[in-house]
Design a protein that fits this description.
- Helices cover 47% and strands 0% of the residues.
- It has helices spanning 5-8, 35-48, 53-56, 59-62, 68-81, 91-102, 115-140, 150-163.
- The longest helix is centred in the middle third of the chain and has 26 residues, at 115-140.
- The relative contact order is 0.06.
Length: 197
């Protein structure tokens, strides 16, 4: 296309470009028409100005009480400041950015000083209440069955020996020295009657 340009102009002098007439910025679109350049200009200008020290002073104490929109605005301003060279940031900005990113607030907040005592006493209260409920149930329940006495279990051993139950390893085997069916402590009082079997 460039080769055909001089031919298109008939009867005129050959096409020449004068270096004095070329302007260096004519090949770029204006910032308003190119959104990428407009964003870059905004970032460059936003990164130039430091955030004022009164805004960042005592941020550790004020952060939890700030409205969420103000917290978001401050964080976005600090984020934009962190895009520049960190040597250009003030010490207050560096401290505030670190504290907002990693400080003990929100889910990382420290527990209250008396939280351990509260947990201990509430646990003791729950154990005490469950103990009282257990004792109430035990006092209102029926007595243990007659099969849960040592005397009845000894009589069961005698019955198993008479029946020759488990003659190889059990109660009726030769030289058996185990307890057999006895699990309970001996009961005070008379042994169970024969007819209760």
């Amino acid at each position: 296309m460039l080769r055909s340009l001089p031919r298109a102009v008939s009867g005129s002098a050959p096409f020449r470009v004068h270096p004095q007439r070329i302007q260096p910025n004519t090949w770029h679109l204006p910032a308003a028409t190119c959104p990428f350049e407009a964003r870059q200009d905004q970032r460059r200008h936003a990164g130039i100005h430091a955030i004022s020290n009164p805004t960042l002073a005592g941020i550790e104490k004020r952060w939890e009480g700030m409205p969420p929109q103000q917290q978001a605005d401050l964080w976005m301003a600090l984020r934009d400041r962190m895009k520049v060279n960190w040597h250009e940031m003030t010490l207050q900005e560096k401290k505030a950015a670190y504290w907002i990113a990693f400080g003990p607030h929100g889910p990382r907040s420290l527990p209250p000083p008396d939280e351990g005592k509260k947990i201990f006493w509430y646990t003791m209260l729950a154990v005490g209440v469950s103990g009282v409920i257990f004792l109430l149930i035990r006092t209102q329940s029926r007595p243990p069955p007659k099969t849960m006495t040592a005397q009845y279990q000894a009589m069961t051993n005698e019955y198993l020996k008479a029946q020759r139950t488990e003659p190889i390893t059990g109660v009726s085997s030769e030289g058996y020295k185990g307890k057999g069916m006895i699990q309970s402590k001996p009961r005070k009082g008379p042994p169970p009657d024969e007819d209760e079997e």
